[in-house]
Amino acid sequence: MGRGKIEIKRIENSTNRQVTYSKRRTGIVKKARELTVLCDAEVSLIMFSSTGKLSEYVSPSTTTKKLFDQYQQIAGIDLWNSHYEKMQENLNKLKDINMRLRREIRYRIGDGLDDLSFEELRGLEQDMDGSLKVVRERKYHMITTQTETYRKKLKNLQETHTSLIREFEDRNEDPYYDVSNYDSSLGVENGGSHMFPFRLQPNQLNVQDGARYGFDNLRLA
C-alpha cells in the first residue's frame, strides 16, 4: 500500500514542523551532493529554519560568493547595490555624529568659540553650568558617603576600645599600666641602671616622672 499524498501547507504543530524540516533538509542536501557528483554541477544551497538556524551546502570546487558573483554576471543584476547603499548611508550618519561630538568637545574646552553666536555661547554656558551642577552634586555625595563610612569606623573603634577597658576593669587590671618590664623594675645589682614601672596616660608623656627617675631622653614609642 503506497503512501498517501501530503497536502502542501504550513504544519501548525511546531514539533512536527521542526521534525519534517530536519528530515527534508537531510534529503535535499543529499540530492544536491548527488547532483554535484553525477553532473559535475556547481551547487550552493542555503536554508534557514523557522527558528533562524542556518544550514548550507556548497559544492567542494566553489564558494557561495563565487556562485553569487557568477549569478549577478549572467543575470545582469546587482545583489549588493541596495545593501551597499544602506551601509553607506549609515556610515555617513555615523560620521556626522562623530563630527558633532568632536565639535562639542572643542567648545567645552574653550576651543573654536569665535565661530559661535551670542545665543550659541549662552546656550553653551547654560549647558556647562548644568554639567557643573551635576559634578558638584556627585562630589558632595561622595564626600558625605566617605564621611559616614569614616564615622562608622570610628564608632566601631570607640566601641572596641570601651569594651577592652571594661574587660580590664572587670579583671581588676589597669589598662594603662606598663608591665612589660616589670621584672626589670627590681634593678640591676652592682651599680647597674634601675628601671621603675610608672603609669602612662594615653597620648600623654609624663616628662617630670621620667626626669625624676633618671630618664633624660625618655620617649614614648
Automatic annotation (TrEMBL):
Organism from which the protein derives: Kingdonia uniflora
K-box domain segment(s): 84-174
Zinc-finger keyword on record: no
A GO biological process held by the record: floral organ development
Domain MADS-box: 1-61
GO molecular function: DNA-binding transcription factor activity; protein dimerization activity; RNA polymerase II transcription regulatory region sequence-specific DNA binding
Signal sequence interval, chain numbering: none
Name listed for the protein in its UniProt record: Uncharacterized protein
GO CC term, one of those recorded: nucleus
SUPFAM superfamilies membership: SRF-like (SSF55455)
Keywords: Coiled coil, DNA-binding, Nucleus, Transcription, Transcription regulation
Entry's localization field: Nucleus
Superkingdom: Eukaryota
Pfam families, alphabetized: K-box, SRF-TF
Entries under PANTHER family matching the protein: SERUM RESPONSE FACTOR HOMOLOG
Coiled-coil ranges from the UniProt annotation: 77-104
